[in-house]
## 1
Amino acid sequence: MRFGAQTDEVTSLLRIVNLVRTGEASTRPEIGRLTGLGRGVVTQRVEAAIEMGFLKDGEYGPSSGGRAPRTLEFDAGQAYIVTCALGALHIRVGLATLDGEILSHAHRAWDIVRGPAETLDAAIALVEELLAQVDDRPIWAVAVGVPGPVDYESGALVAPPIMPGWNGFNVRRRFEQRFDAPVWVDNDSNILALAERVHRRADTVDLIYCKVGSGIGAGLLSRGHLHRGANGAAGDIGHVRVRDSEVLCRCGKVGCLEAEAGGWAMVRDADQAIADGATGALAARRQNGEPITPEVLTLAAIDGDALAISLVQRSARLVGESVAALVNMFNPGVIVIGGAMAGAGEIYLAEVRQRVYELSLPLATRDLAIVSSLKDESEPLRGAAELAIEELFEVSLPRWFASGRPTIEGVKAA
């Protein structure tokens, strides 16, 4: 069954599909109570939704005295969402269902400085390897996370400090050409904030996800929704100015938080301290010719290396000062610390908490929780799937629903 213009029938069908998809209703009588539609109309609409492939019959529910009602389920397995998370030194891809379950995923070490063409070819090849191992279902959406500023409306990167050659590159178009499906591209901190929302699910989540890896960024959730700002740059705290700092940042500016507290800055400072005579396990590693990375630094701190602990704690104090400014302005209920530095656990968190509580207003911190992120490599893929689901079913669904599946043109239509 297909429909033309947006009619009352289509509108009620839309609502019924979303009631079942979100779990607000699971039987025909529940749909009737929530929508006010008569039993015959509900039956007609549900049959249409089943014919279109959005809903399917489930098990019988509990009886309230009469015949047990047949439950309804959203058919989340009718199509795939392709998820892709690009990092400074890795590529992760996955296939997800329409309710966000990650069915399969793959990972490859990769240096993002190899440029957009080579990097996206490698990412798409990984996706194609996954697709070759599963049954043939349509791809309804692609969501991509990148470690740099993104113009969300166009899908193009804008002067990303750690991604030379990517400025102005339209990531969206490359995936659209290959998969012929709607594509959304966002900053990796925003993607990770959405992954946290999956675990909390309350519509009232006010959350800051602060990623401290090689670089530093933040994703902001306000009442459960991402706050990107006018151009998609909200939360880029890695390039706020640190007081009295004159250190040159990779972005070309001086005194950025990332240049003082990011993972790459900590590796730089560790190398300098070792050259100046610092000793310990971290120094021994460097002297043996082994590389120091942000992950190595956090592990060394946990193992008690004095140099690593001092670097980790200094990073946490500086990050805490910048986050405190966000706390006073944004008043979140939760701050999640993620990225490589989250691996240092309480060594890092304790310093962040101390600075936030010292520098923020009492009311803003009264119910504030500051926690580490889940250390799950699938989290960026889960967040990417959440982005695609939100765009498909909460933003653009009325534009493509009558066609039975999303298209690039249908999603973009006004």
## 2
Amino acid sequence: MKYENGRDIFPERLLKQIQKYVSGKLVYIPSSDKKRAWGETSGYKQYLIERNRDIKSKFNAGASVEQLADEYYKCPYRS
């Protein structure tokens, strides 16, 4: 994100109104785009949903917690 001077962006009248509230401070103005939930943009949320579904399915089919831990969480401290 790039720093912009308010004088270069806002009309004079709007700039004076903004200065009444935040004169001399840095202000973040969020995008007006629809806000997306965490992980939706990267696809990581969907990955975790599918991963967790697989883990539950394997557990219900009889896999032990230890087997699932070995498959889904490669802990370097386990032998």
